[in-house]
Amino acid sequence: MGCRDVHAATVLAFLSGTASVAGLLAAVLLPNWRQMRLYTFNKNEKNVTVYTGLWIKCARFDGSRDCVIYDPQWYTAVDQLDLRVLQFALPLSMLTAVSALFLCLIGMCNTAFVSSVPNLKLAKCLVNSAGCHLVAGLLFLLACAICLTPSIWVIFYNNYLNRKYEPVFSFDISVFIAIASAGGLFFTSVLLFLWYCACKSLPSPFWQPLYSHAPSMHSYASQPYSARSRLSAIEIDIPVVTHTS
Question: Membrane-crossing residues (predicted)?
Fold first, then answer.
């Protein structure tokens, strides 16, 4: 299959990127970034676990699924620096990944539905499929960095809180979902980079479409001076048509 066709690598990259964005969305919405477990020595009372998310906070008794205390305005009063950073980092990472998905989709549609021999007049205006995938790969890599760095920081900040106060803090499932989604974004960018490197001839410029001109294009060039010197005055003014390889 030629590089102008839609490879399985680009389709797999698009599916992987979509799954990663879905994972990021789940991590953003779930109130399971940090747990604070409060113990009681009173036998008539139950232990309480406070689930802290990016936007809401929920306190539950052990064995219960209902929130005893539910704070939907938690996002305005977040007092933990790592969660405050995540409130900005994860939506930005999602926006970057969605932009990359859009570019990847444009490149796939262009390679699937556009003729491999473009119109001579439109050759310089066509969408660069290889460029779309390259920029999409860079955006996926950027989204991975924006998501992964603060998500890992939650683990270290959790240890800091345990040392500063009491060992009652623990990170929750949203941390693992965010890190796994960042890994999916990195895998997606690697797939797109591999596709780009495999489909580009190495001597060509770094930024060049899969077709730089139509195969039927002609260029007008003059013969060298030694050849033209043997031509008559009339023949000199006649351009010689040569075919580019």
Answer: 6-30, 88-114, 134-156, 168-196
